[in-house]
Design brief:
Blueprint lengths: L4 H10 L6 H10 L24 H22 L9 E5 L9 H9 L6 E5 L6 H15 L4 E7 L12 H9 L4 E7 L10 E10 L4 H4 L2 E5 L5 E5 L3 H20 L2 H16 L19 E4 L4 H11 L3 H14 L6 H11 L8 E8 L3 E9 L29
Parallel strand pairs: 1-2, 1-3, 8-9
Antiparallel strand pairs: 3-4, 5-10, 6-7, 9-10
Helix pairs in contact: 2-6, 3-4, 8-10, 11-12
EC number: 2.3.1.199
GO molecular function: fatty acid elongase activity
Family: Belongs to the thiolase-like superfamily. Chalcone/stilbene synthases family.
Length: 398
């Protein structure tokens, strides 16, 4: 259900428990500045007073999101559920039993020999982790179809406490998910939209500050929530630099690699005379489009500054955050849908998906568009793409 900011603020004021006046005032102040608009959705249970974060409602949210996404995908591509060979799901904090993959297998009556994997605890970067797992399995099992479903269930994880670092998640996370179909079958080459060219995973959890960047824990009063460290932007920047160092040589044109190599050579052998800093390659030269995890307004701003991106480059991320909120691991797929609905994905274009997640992880996926994507094909943006982009004020009116 849609959660307008005005309704959300009113709902917040009525919550009891350990949710004191300072907590309410903080959220009322921060909500309009989060970059999330009034059309983002919340599960039904979060429109109730008191909140009902029961397992029943958690499973209802998972079924609502993923059953719809899977059914739309199968119908759109005329795929029989019996044709799916591999099924991978990810949902970080909510881990029901039976598993999410088992729920989908039961709903759509997949084959008994389907290879299924349910990932949990992997954070907002888990969408690309699931793609990575599916890719590795497809290397071993030829002539196969892999279905990847990605989401985060927020029903049981609303924080009703006094810790401001944990209250932030209430203003950002919203309901959403995605289903992605991968294939290594020869007959699918003519109909596939994208080819996965590179997938780079980095984990800087060896660093204590990075490891503590995003933590699901109890506060001083024993209330459970997700703690976003004040150092999170610094940690994300470190993760992006580490990831880019590995990705760069795989995607950059030779001209950029030569400039970088020459500056390193001069720095080491001509140190007394060479006063210039090491050349930083321009990663923008390798890509036509960017899908940055819509983790929050400040996250998008920080990545844009780090990569010297213009407003057009980050438009899919900003519009996704505004329209859908932070949908965790699925946000980069909403952004790709935005590019498609805008008619921007042309044959030969390369798109860079950047995902951040607890641990701390930064993952990159590079996709090459195999044919012009028809903007009229229905997707998550189809009913209102004509209204975007919109100007997003520093403070949204509520």
């Amino acid at each position: 259900m849609r959660a307008p900011i005005s309704s959300y603020i009113e709902h917040t004021v009525l919550l009891g428990g350990k949710f004191d006046k300072n907590s309410r005032d903080f959220l009322v102040k921060f909500f309009p500045r989060s970059g999330v608009g009034s059309e983002a959705s919340m599960p039904v249970s979060m429109h109730q007073i008191p909140l009902d974060g029961s397992m029943k409602n958690t499973v209802l949210e998972i079924e609502t999101v993923l059953f719809t996404a899977v059914e739309d995908l199968l119908v759109k591509h005329n795929i029989s559920p019996k044709s799916i060979d591999i099924l991978v799901s990810n949902c970080s904090v909510s881990c029901p039993t039976p598993s999410i993959t088992a729920m989908i297998i039961n709903k759509f009556k997949f084959r008994s020999n389907i290879m299924s994997y349910s990932l949990a605890g992997m954070g907002c970067s888990a969408g690309l982790l699931s793609i990575s797992l599916a890719k590795d399995i497809l290397k071993v099992h030829k002539n196969s179809l892999a279905l990847v479903v990605t989401m985060e269930a927020i029903t049981p994880h609303v924080y009703i406490g006094r810790n401001k670092s944990m209250l932030l998640t209430n203003t950002l996370f919203r309901m959403g998910g995605a289903a992605i179909l991968l294939s290594n079958r020869k007959q699918d080459k003519t109909t596939a939209k994208y080819e996965l060219q590179h997938l780079v995973r980095t984990n800087i959890g060896f660093d204590d500050q990075s490891y503590r960047g995003i933590v699901h824990e109890e506060d001083e009063d024993g209330t459970v929530g997700i703690n976003l460290s004040p150092k999170l932007l610094h940690v994300a920047g470190k993760g992006l630099r580490t990831n880019s160092t590995t990705l760069g040589p795989l995607v950059l044109p030779y001209s950029e690699l030569i400039k970088y190599g020459w500056s390193i050579f001069c720095q080491k052998l001509c140190a007394p005379l060479w006063r210039k800093e090491v050349y930083i390659p321009d990663l923008k030269m390798a890509f036509d489009h960017f899908c940055i995890h819509a983790g929050g307004k400040r996250v998008i701003d920080a990545v844009a500054e780090s990569l010297s991106l213009c407003e057009e480059d980050v438009e899919p991320s900003r519009m996704t955050l505004y329209r859908f909120g932070n949908t965790s691991s699925s946000s980069i797929w909403y952004e790709l849908c935005y590019l498609e609905a805008k008619g921007k994905m042309k044959k030969g274009d390369k798109v860079w998906q950047i995902a951040f997640g607890s641990g701390f992880k930064c993952n990159s996926g590079v996709w090459k568009c195999l044919s012009d994507v028809d903007p009229n094909v229905k997707n998550a943006w189809s009913d209102r793409i004509h209204r975007y982009p919109v100007d997003i004020p520093d403070q949204v009116d509520h």
